[in-house]
Structure formats: structure tokens, C-alpha cells
Design brief:
Layout: H1 2-14, E1 17-21, E2 26-29, H2 45-59, E3 67-71, H3 77-89, E4 95-99, H4 108-115, E5 122-127, H5 137-151, E6 157-163, H6 171-180, H7 184-196, E7 200-204, H8 209-222, H9 229-242, H10 247-260
Parallel strand pairs: 1-4, 3-6, 3-7, 4-5, 5-6
Antiparallel strand pairs: 1-2
Length: 267
């Protein structure tokens, strides 16, 4: 046991990014991981400021809130979490990020036991794309697991969760419950109570064309791609073909443009 704890402390000491491995119930370091430069994440300035301040406060040992980042796909929820972490890490090397797959969420209590006693370090557990399609036995077990875990959360651990849904479930499920339940308020409240456990709700919404083009322009400036009317027109056409305007769509356009111009994108 002593040797196992020693290895854990050395692994945590030498690395910043980890992923939880369900097979052997341990954290594994991720080598050579560099997220998107935080300055390149634009169009979501208020969201960025809220999450950055919350993360800085956590790294400094102050009181902070678990955060639920919710909203439209492709608008930077996961990227923002990783980029904010990387930014804060540059001044607070006690900060660590552990990604927990949503399918392994039952392990969260065990993960707390492993890292909760490493008091010097501050751990952000990141669960990406968490949502529930229906109310079934799995939902109730997961809700009980996560809900209870949030209440028993060690002080050196923070939860950042991304989801496409504000209440972690489809809107029509809540609406149906309101229209059909005998005790409407109690039934609906039970279903949204999990999301209420997150002190920060940070919403991400569809981009306007102005914001979308501003992202394209920022990428072009950073990667030294000529930004002109031709690029703007192609960027708009690209978004129309894909049927959306998101930060992900903008990034994919830049990769395609760089490829066509034989340019190298350094991540």
C-alpha cells in the first residue's frame, strides 16, 4: 500500500493532465497535451471570464463552485475548460485536471478516495458531454451517485461538467412531466435537482455571423493566413454547407484552408 501511494504521489507531482482508467481504477497521465490558446477562444467572453475567475480562486484555495457548462454543440465548452486550466496552470502548478468518462461516472466516489487525501494539490474532475436520454434505472443510479458525490466532495476537488442540455436531459422530458405527473412540482424538481447542485451554470448559445467571422479573423491573424473578402465568403459558405455557425465549424474551416494553402498549423 505504501509503495502504491508513493507511485501515485510521484505521478501526480510530475504531471498535470490525467484520464481515469476504469479497468484498473487508477489515473493515467496524458503526455504532450497542449490545448487551444485561450486568446483564440473568442465570442464567449463572459463565459471565459466566469470560468477563469472560478478556476483561479480554486487554485488559490478559495471557496468556489462546481460548474455546469451547457448549450449548443461545438461552441467551445470542452475547449474552454481545457484552455482555462492550461492558463491557470502556468501560475499554479498545484492544479491538476482529470478527465472522467461519463460511462465511468460510478467510479467518482472511488476517485475521491484516491485523490482527496492529496491535500497539497487541487484537482478539477472534468466530465464531458453528460446527459440523460430517458428516466430509467441507469439515470437514477447515476443521479444518486453524482448527486451524493457532490455533497461529499473533498475540498481539494472541483467538478466541471459539459452538457448540451441545461438540466442534463431533453426539454421535452421535463415538459411531459409537467403535463402528466400527478404531483407536478415534486416530480419535475426531482429530475432537475442534479443540475441545481452546480453553483455555476454557464450557457453557450448559437453564434451570430459577426461573431463567427470574428473567430475566423482571429485564427487567420494567429496562424498568419491572409484574411480578406475571399476568405470571409468561403467561411460563410463553409458554415452554410455544415448547417451551423460554431467555434468548431470555424476551426475546421481554418484547418481546411491551411491544408489548401500548404500551411502548417502548430497546436
Amino acid at each position: 500500500m505504501f509503495f502504491k501511494n508513493f507511485l501515485l504521489k510521484e505521478t501526480v507531482k510530475r504531471n498535470a493532465y490525467f484520464i481515469w482508467k476504469n479497468e484498473n481504477k487508477s489515473i493515467h497521465p496524458i503526455k504532450d497535451f497542449t490545448p487551444l490558446n485561450l486568446n483564440l477562444i473568442i465570442g464567449i467572453d463572459s463565459q471565459k471570464e466566469i470560468l477563469l475567475n472560478n478556476t483561479i480562486n480554486f487554485a488559490e484555495g478559495n471557496f468556489t463552485n462546481n460548474a455546469l457548462l451547457w448549450g449548443a454543440r461545438g461552441n467551445g465548452k470542452s475547449s474552454l475548460i481545457k484552455s482555462v486550466f492550461h492558463k491557470v496552470l502556468s501560475k499554479h502548478n498545484n492544479l491538476k485536471l482529470i478527465q472522467l468518462n461519463k460511462n465511468n461516472i460510478f467510479d467518482i466516489e472511488y476517485l475521491y478516495q484516491i485523490i482527496g487525501k492529496l491535500y497539497y494539490y487541487r484537482f478539477i474532475i472534468f466530465i464531458d458531454d453528460l446527459s440523460f436520454e430517458k428516466i430509467d434505472s441507469d439515470y437514477k443510479i447515476i443521479k444518486s451517485t453524482l448527486d451524493g458525490s457532490i455533497q461529499n466532495q473533498p475540498n481539494n476537488i472541483l467538478l466541471y461538467v459539459s452538457s448540451n442540455r441545461r438540466h442534463l436531459m431533453p426539454r421535452d422530458m421535463i415538459d411531459n412531466e409537467r403535463s402528466s405527473a400527478i404531483h407536478t412540482d415534486e416530480s419535475v424538481e426531482e429530475k432537475i435537482s442534479l443540475s441545481d447542485r452546480f453553483g455555476l451554470w454557464i450557457g453557450f448559445h448559437k453564434l451570430s455571423q459577426i461573431d463567427y467571422l470574428k473567430i475566423i479573423e482571429t485564427y487567420c491573424q494567429f496562424y498568419k493566413i491572409n484574411y480578406d473578402e475571399s476568405i470571409k465568403k468561403k467561411a460563410i459558405q463553409w458554415s452554410l454547407r455544415r448547417g451551423n455557425r460554431t467555434g468548431r465549424t470555424a476551426w475546421q474551416f481554418i484547418l481546411d484552408t491551411a491544408s489548401n494553402q500548404n500551411l502548417k498549423i502548430n497546436f
